[in-house]
Amino acid sequence: MSASLLRRGLELLEAPGRGEAPRGLQRGQNGPRAAAAARRRKRAPEPGRNKATVKGRVVKSAIEEYHKKKAVDHLRENLRYMLKRRFVANKAITEQVLAQNRGRKSKDQPPKKAAKKKPEGTVFTEQDFRKFEREYFGRP
Fold first, then answer.
1. Is the pLDDT of residue 101 over 70?
2. Residue 128 and residue 45: Cα distance in Å, rounded?
3. Does 10 map to a domain?
4. Region Disordered: start and end of each range (predicted)?
5. Which domain does 97 fall in, by range?
6. Kind and range of the H or E element at 36?
7. What is the tally of structural domains in the chain?
8. Over 70: is that where the pLDDT of 1 sits?
9. Chain-centre distance of CA 131, in angstroms?
């Protein structure tokens, strides 16, 4: 609804004696002050409007952009979730996931575990040596 239609509707609904104010109380639009006031109103910029920007473009706040793009730390929630559950994953599956997330560089590879060496022992007993000595050297 336009402002003029609204004004006309209000004029029709007003009480008969209250239509117009006395001449001295009315805001006059004639005179030197009225022209200056009209010029000031015309010249007054809209609040928040920056003429240096492209028409229709909204100036973004750097702080709001920073907060939007700031990384969110989910560590506490994840720990609470993990500690709440008592489910333990299969070791083979865990190793597979770790292998997938590991890089190909040597610095990303875990240190190789050295296989435990069995203590070197002989298969021959002391009796076998004595028997061999007797047979080979001919000593009793």
1. yes
2. 112
3. no
4. 13-56, 98-124
5. 75-105
6. helix 32-43
7. 1
8. no
9. 81
